[in-house]
Amino acid sequence: MSATDPADRQPMTEAELQAVTLGELQPLGGPIALHDYDPQWPQLFQREAQRIRALLGERALLLEHAGSTSVPGLAAKPVIDIVLAVPDSADEDAYVPVLEAAGYRLRIREPEWYEHRLFKGPDTDINLHVFSVGCEEIDKMLAFRDHLRTNAADRELYERAKRELAAQNWKYTQNYADAKTAVIEQIVARARASATARG
Description:
This protein is α+β, with helices and mostly antiparallel strands. Helices cover 42% and strands 15% of the residues.
């Protein structure tokens, strides 16, 4: 896994997935359940964001709704992806105990991939992605979201790809996520080209 070029990140093997997962891996063993867009998803994000801000205060330097649930009209797994930027995501003592005391569970630790940490929520099904402020992966995730919100053609392309992949049988949800990499990279490249053209 590379922290210098996101496109270099290869699909994770089961051993690699186990190495970064805290606790037992949870096999999926089947297709992915996609849901039509639910207008309650942004409300669920807002509730989580308020709770996280209350817990972390000024340590929460950025909180954004990301992933497919943040794109109106796009089908998605009903899991709210949240991006949190802290001063230093490797400094777990600064934020992990506070989040865990409130019921968030640290499930993924990836020191070799942007010092990424992932928490599951105390009640709502969320993926709370924690990075250091200024991390380029945050820019990529938000550029992808913003492009899909405004570009119907790429939104439809992404949904078609997701539905085709979701219908397959996957051992782990991460395998499905890895399989989407190619189409995501195509769309991100177009999003960046559009941003450059706009100046």
